[in-house]
Design goal:
With 543 residues, the chain is mainly alpha-helical. It has 23 helices and 4 strands. Helices cover 60% and strands 4% of the residues. The strands form 2 sheets. Strands 1-2 form a two-stranded antiparallel sheet. A two-stranded antiparallel ribbon has the order 3-4.
Length: 543
């Protein structure tokens, strides 16, 4: 907890300092400090992204940014704004902050933390953005803006990767500034994402903030659209937010079309970054194929698409069974999946139906724009991969819009403390929930409470791996575990080694060092034998 507190006390002033500079340079007028903090995070993310094409985001990048941000914070006297937020509510604010630090100090348990988040951050901080990195590990082709931002502060300011906890503190600052107490009801659920650098948390937090600004009638179309594109660049399934910001600015604020210029510039950077690391503009979609030589192999992309279909049905059906589904089977089997995910699907459809009724009764142009934007997102998600994690934000949006300014401060606090107690039990006695929520696989990684959390966050360590070489690529592979979260780079997960063998290919270095990037090539018969020996040895060690 003390470690996260240190990171919070450093990074929030740094973000605010850069936010103040951004507002001064581009003559942006904003009320309060929370939106300035978000603009600071946005501007640093852009700068980090541009730098990462050329250098690693190591301590030599981190220190100047921290010093410059703190200098701007004190020069613009940003501390006055932070002290002003706590005025009259200091005990409540500090209590909420302590609760956030407590939950943020638990062991990470989201599977992507081990298979994607940490490896992505490791590559960016040690090497930078690598052309064709998806040929080494397809998951690394995502390289979210959130992980670029996290990587830039991972050397010493936030070495435990708890930026999400800091983001929740920023969320609380916004709640107190706007007196938007309904937001407190979402905090306990977001605690589930605070131990990992999961992009899900910032996009939910920033979308709720942006949605509140729109409902309050904020007419700064340029800022709204820019932040909405930033949210999209963190997680593209949030496509509904740029759509909503665009429609709101065009049909309600009646802004001139030039408001899209800063956001569109960021969008082009997002597309370029994706093409650089993945070969296509949006991961994992294979459209706008420009034929770049570093794009992933078609067989590997096909297997990824197949896995997305399988995960849509929670791996409860085979690919052959799914392909034989009729249209009604597609709907029924998805809607009534066995386990907790089926319940989530049913709740989603009911929520959307109720939101339709609410929009019809409300007769508000803005509510209809929100409804249209959400439905557009749902159509896209359902078309490509209808996994519950891609539309979890829809529940937050519907609840927020329906109950906006209808829940008092007292009721919001009561709801917060009740839900916080329940989530606290979930973390502190995980074995109880592991036995009762067997279909919710993430519960198996919950580590429970340990006293050392009061000093520093709990982290897992494995550090069991062997090194191998195929062609010109020397790589490391983890032993007796599926994910390479603390295996030195370049690392390849065992599942991908098997996929490469099945596809008859293997990643290779494009040049003499890691920064030159990766391509794939067909393997020779002798290389096929060597790869099979690697997999056989690993299987033997696991026994």
């Amino acid at each position: 907890m003390l470690s996260i507190l240190f990171s919070t006390l450093i990074l929030i002033p740094v973000f605010l300092g850069f936010g103040k500079i951004t507002c001064s340079l581009f003559q942006i007028e904003l009320e309060g400090i929370s939106l300035r903090i978000i603009l600071g995070m946005l501007s640093i993310s852009i700068l980090f992204c541009l730098l990462a094409f050329f250098v690693s985001l190591n301590i030599f990048v981190e220190v100047p940014f921290v010093v410059f941000g703190l200098g701007a914070f004190f020069y613009f006297r940003g501390y006055r704004g932070i002290l002003g937020v706590m005025a009259g509510n200091r005990i409540l604010f500090l209590s909420l902050m302590a609760i956030i630090l407590f939950f943020g100090s638990f062991y990470p348990f989201i599977l992507d933390h081990f298979g994607y988040y940490v490896p992505a951050i490791s590559w960016i901080s040690k090497v930078g953005l690598v052309k064709g990195i998806s040929n080494l590990d397809l998951l690394l082709g995502q390289m979210s803006f959130w992980h670029i931002l996290q990587a830039g502060f991972s050397s010493f300011t936030d070495s435990f990767l708890r930026l999400n906890s800091i983001t929740l503190v920023i969320f609380v600052i916004y709640i107190f500034e706007r007196r938007s107490w309904i937001h407190l009801a979402f905090l306990p659920i977001l605690f589930l994402f605070s131990q990992s650098p999961s992009p899900d948390l910032p996009v939910i937090v920033f979308s709720l903030i942006l949605l509140n600004e729109i409902l309050l009638g904020n007419r700064n179309s340029t800022m709204l659209f820019l932040i909405s594109v930033f949210i999209f660049s963190i997680k593209p399934t949030m496509i509904w937010l740029p759509v909503l910001s665009f429609l709101y600015s065009l049909f309600i604020v009646n802004s001139r079309l030039k408001f899209i210029l800063p956001g569109t510039t960021l969008l082009f950077l997002f597309f370029f970054k994706n093409i650089w690391v993945f070969g296509f503009p949006i991961f994992p979609l294979q459209f706008l194929d420009f034929g770049f030589g570093w794009k992933p192999n078609d067989i590997i992309l096909g297997k990824s698409a197949d896995m997305a279909i399988l995960k849509t049905y929670d791996l409860q059906y085979s690919l052959e069974e799914i392909r034989r589904f009729s249209l009604m089977d597609y709907v029924n089997n998805w809607l009534f999946l066995a386990g907790i995910k089926g319940i989530i699907h049913v709740l989603l459809i009911l929520s959307l139906a109720l939101f339709l009724v609410y929009a019809a009764l409300k007769k508000s142009k803005l509510v209809w724009l929100i409804f249209i934007s959400i439905w557009l997102k749902m159509i896209i998600v359902l078309w490509f991969s209808a996994q519950y994690r891609f539309f979890i934000d829809v529940f937050f949006v519907i609840f927020f819009v329906v109950f906006w300014q209808r829940i008092s401060r007292f009721r919001s606090l009561m709801l917060f403390f009740i839900l916080t107690f329940m989530v606290g039990l979930f973390f502190c006695v995980p074995k109880y929930f592991q036995s009762r929520l067997a279909s919710f696989k993430m519960t198996g990684f919950l580590g429970g409470f340990v006293s050392t959390q009061f000093i520093s966050p709990s982290v897992y360590a494995w550090k069991k791996y062997d090194d191998y070489q195929i062609g010109n690529l020397k790589f490391n592979m983890v032993n007796s575990y599926p994910f390479s979260f603390d295996t030195p780079i370049p690392a390849i997960s065992p599942s991908f080694v098997q996929e490469y063998l099945d596809a008859g290919i293997f990643p290779q270095m494009k040049g003499s060092n890691l920064r030159d990037g990766f391509i794939w090539k067909k393997i020779t018969p002798s290389e096929r034998v060597d790869i099979q020996k690697i997999l056989d040895l690993r299987e033997h060690l696991e026994r």
